[in-house]
């Protein structure tokens, strides 16, 4: 048996994972005033409510190696194999934790793949691993496909506010105040496994056009779904998805809420798209 294991950087919660045919371990998200429990809030609305009233940004800590080791030792005892799809090593130490636990377990039935991505893109990879497993592919076949697609998986987002980038020290306070006043929207992408700012535009429509320009330039592999996301703003996310599907003639698409790992730095109102770039 091949067990597919991911982490909550994918926004696949601990309780939600079994229904998808996989398991998930947790990154901790802690506010100074309270602790957010990823296991019990799959819609993430409580997180954004907490984020809006918190004085400071919450801290996000990587998955502890012991969490992985518990799963690995259990698989070893049962003779199962484990394929792990982690949050990008360029964003978090979670990949390093998985590799550390793999070494300590000393069991050849474990494969660890760095998604080089996060949230919806990481989720797409984990779900594809389940699909391949259920089709009878072996663990090395699955690993090969995921490593290849990790080089081509793209994720781009337009933020609604500079407030949380300011709180995180990524933009000066004065710039955030002025930028919010004139409706500046940062456009970000995950590039080479790290979050990068790629544009600043004025207004949400301009943000959508910036994402469309990148999507058009990259092209997309129709063998993979194009997935959309939003941070606590389903109406805006669905509008963006519908317009994008119509504009590009997309045949397969899905939309997901985005949780706290990335939402900590974006706040509510962000729109997200992920796709596999054409070779």
Task: Describe what you observe in this structure.
- Helix 2 packs parallel to helix 3 and helix 4 runs antiparallel to helix 5.
- About 40% of the residues lie in helices and about 25% in strands.
- The longest helix has 16 residues.
- Strands 10-9-8-13-11-12 form a six-stranded mixed beta sheet, sandwiched between helices.
- The protein is built from ten helices and 13 strands.
- The protein has about 280 residues and is α/β, with parallel strands linked by helices.
- The radius of gyration is 19 Å and the shape is globular.
Largest sheet: 6 strands, mixed
Amount of helix = 40-55%
**DSSP helix count?**
10
How confident is the prediction overall: mean pLDDT?
A: 89
Strand order of the largest sheet: 10-9-8-13-11-12
What is the succession of H and E elements? EEEEHEHEHEHHEHHEEHEHEHE
Number of strands: 13
* Unreliable stretches: none
Q: Determine the N-to-C terminus distance.
A: 32 Å
Which radius of gyration do the C-alpha atoms yield? 19 Å
Q: What overall geometry do the principal axes of the alpha carbons give? A: globular
Structural class: alpha/beta
Strand fraction equals: 15-25%
